[in-house]
User: Which sequence fits this backbone?
């Protein structure tokens, strides 16, 4: 089923269950934020594939993730600091740009994969994620933690990997949790092998 949501093109990739803090100051996004808070509605985060975050509307990737504002502050008039949480992956069917520069996308939500356990061979990835969460602070991760869910473990590690956004985008577009875990494992091995 298609729905219309505002699209926020960013230089980062948001995953379902992920936490994304944002600083909103451009008028088009301030108005979007006010509407999302008022209606408790979603907006879409999509990786920029052309253009820039500020100024002329950027070209968003065809696959993104819906975001919901979980809390906000207004430190100055016209400035919001937000905490948002990723919910559902979407496919962008069509888009139009409003006169104020806000992109409105017609999107189709992609059904989440069935819950998949984490096979024993990926136990080191669970351990690594647990260590990272302890080190970085649980407050920096959306709760509750789901270490027994392959998609959740793969998504949290994908967020933390020091890799190009385009590679994270490929992980977001992976539809099978175990394939995503395998890709994360491969990327981790490559990063380890590349270290001087």
Assistant:
């Amino acid at each position: 089923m298609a729905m219309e949501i505002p699209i926020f093109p960013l230089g980062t990739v948001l995953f379902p269950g992920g936490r994304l803090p944002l600083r909103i100051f451009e008028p088009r996004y301030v108005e979007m934020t006010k509407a999302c808070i008022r209606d408790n509605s979603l907006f879409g985060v999509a990786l920029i594939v052309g253009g820039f975050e500020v100024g002329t509307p950027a070209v968003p990737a065809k696959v993104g993730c819906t975001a919901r504002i979980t809390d906000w502050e207004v430190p100055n008039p016209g400035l919001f600091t937000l905490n948002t949480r990723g919910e559902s992956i979407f496919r962008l069917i069509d888009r139009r740009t409003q006169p104020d520069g806000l992109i409105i996308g017609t999107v189709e939500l992609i059904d989440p994969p069935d819950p998949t356990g984490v096979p024993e061979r990926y136990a080191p990835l669970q351990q690594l994620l647990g260590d990272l969460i302890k080190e970085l602070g649980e407050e920096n991760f959306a709760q509750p933690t789901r270490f027994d869910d392959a998609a959740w473990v793969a998504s949290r590690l994908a967020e933390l990997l020091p890799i190009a956004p385009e590679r994270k985008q490929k992980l977001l577009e992976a539809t099978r949790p175990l394939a995503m875990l395998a890709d994360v494992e491969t990327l981790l091995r490559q990063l380890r092998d590349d270290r001087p």
